[in-house]
Design goal:
Chains A, B: It catalyses: XMP + diphosphate = xanthine + 5-phospho-alpha-D-ribose 1-diphosphate. The structure is a homodimer. Chain A is α/β, with parallel strands linked by helices. Helix content of chain A is 28%, strand content 34%. Strand 3 of chain A pairs antiparallel with strand 5 of chain B, so a sheet runs across the interface.
Chain lengths: 193, 193
C-alpha cells in the first residue's frame, strides 16, 4: 500500500535493535484517515471471505481494528487483554506471548463470551515482527474453536520472518507494508516489491 | 443517550465493589456502530468548539476515540501510554494515575511531539469514576500548554463524584450515560434523569 509506505519513509524512524518507530501516525498518534484507507485495503483483499469478528490485541491494534471493522459490515471487534484485571471474571481463554517491544512475557486473555466456535475471525495488528503476538491470538481462536480467516497487518518487518512463517503455515497474511531491510545509520528503509 | 443507557441496562452487569461490566459492547468486545453514534453525540454537544486533537488513554479509550475522531474532521487521536516501552524515547510528558480497576498507581506518558501548546484537545474515555485518569490527561495537557476544550465520556459513575468535581472545576464534561446508583444484588441501574 503505497500511502502507508510513503508515510513510513517520510515519518518513520529506524532505531538500533530492529526498532521502527511509526508513532507519528500509527501507534501513539493515530491518523484515522490512514486507518480508514487501511481498512478499505484489507476489505478488498479479504473480499471473498465471510468475516464475523475482528480480533486484535491491546493497545495499538484497537484503533486500527475498530476503524477497519466499518469496512467489514461493522462486525464486532474484540481486543485481547494483556493482563488480569478485576473487571474480567474467570471465564477466559488464556495464552502467553513474548513481546519484542517490551522484552518480556505476558499473559493474553479473551473472555469466552466473545470468541466462539461459530466465529470467522480476521486478526488485525499494527506490527508483525517474529509473529509471537499473532500466534497468541491464533492460539486463543483455536481454544475457542473459531476459524482464522485471515490476518491484516499494517507493518510487517519481513526480515524478522514471522510473516513468512505464518504464510508457510497456510494463513492468508495481508501486510500493507513489508519492510525488507532498514538501516539505523542512514535511516534507509526498503520495502518488499 | 438513550441507546447507550438501554445497552447498559440490557447487557451491563453490576458487580460488588462499584464495578459495572460493559465488556459486551464497550471495553473488551466493541460495538463500532454504537461507537459511531457516541461520536455523533459528542460532535453535537461540542459543536461550538474548535477541536484540533483527541487525547485518550490506553487501552479501552482508543477505539472509541478513533471512531469519534471521524465526527471531528478526522483530527489526530493521541493515546497516552500506561508504561514505559523501548519504542518511546526520552521526550515525554509524564504523570501518575491511580487506577480504580487495577487498584494500583501507574505512570502515564505522552510524547512531547504529539501534544503541543497550539492544541485544542477533546479528552475521551470509556469510563469516568473518581476522575483520576482524566486528571492525569488534564495534567499532561497542562504540561504541554494545550487547551482542554471538553471531555467526552461514555459511562460516568455519577455516585463516585469524579464527573461533578470536573464540572465544578469548569470543564465541559459530556457523559453519554450517568449511573446515579446501581445494585449488585438486584442488578438494578438508575441513570441521572
Amino acid at each position: 500500500m503505497k500511502e502507508l509506505e510513503d508515510r513510513i519513509r517520510r515519518e518513520g524512524t529506524v532505531k538500533e535493535g530492529d526498532v521502527l518507530k511509526v508513532d507519528a501516525f500509527l501507534n501513539h498518534q493515530c491518523d484515522v484517515t490512514l486507518f480508514d484507507h487501511m481498512g478499505a485495503a484489507w476489505a478488498e483483499h479479504f473480499a471473498g471471505k465471510t468475516i464475523t469478528k475482528i480480533l486484535t490485541i491491546e493497545a495499538s491494534g484497537i484503533g486500527i481494528a475498530c476503524i477497519a471493522a466499518r469496512h467489514f459490515g461493522n462486525v464486532p471487534v474484540v481486543f485481547a487483554k494483556k493482563a488480569q484485571s478485576i473487571n474480567l471474571d474467570g471465564e477466559q481463554y488464556v495464552t502467553t506471548v513474548y513481546s519484542f517491544t517490551k522484552q518480556r512475557e505476558f499473559p493474553v486473555i479473551v473472555s469466552k463470551k466473545y470468541l466462539n466456535a461459530g466465529d470467522h475471525v480476521l486478526l488485525i495488528d499494527d506490527f508483525l515482527a517474529n509473529g509471537k503476538a499473532l500466534h497468541g491470538l491464533i492460539s486463543l481462536c483455536e481454544s475457542a474453536g473459531a476459524v482464522v480467516e485471515g490476518i491484516g497487518i499494517a507493518v510487517e518487518k519481513g526480515f524478522q520472518g514471522g510473516g513468512d512463517r505464518l504464510r508457510d503455515e497456510g494463513y492468508d497474511v495481508d501486510s500493507l507494508a513489508i519492510v525488507e531491510s532498514m538501516d539505523p545509520a542512514t535511516g534507509e528503509i526498503e520495502f518488499r516489491g
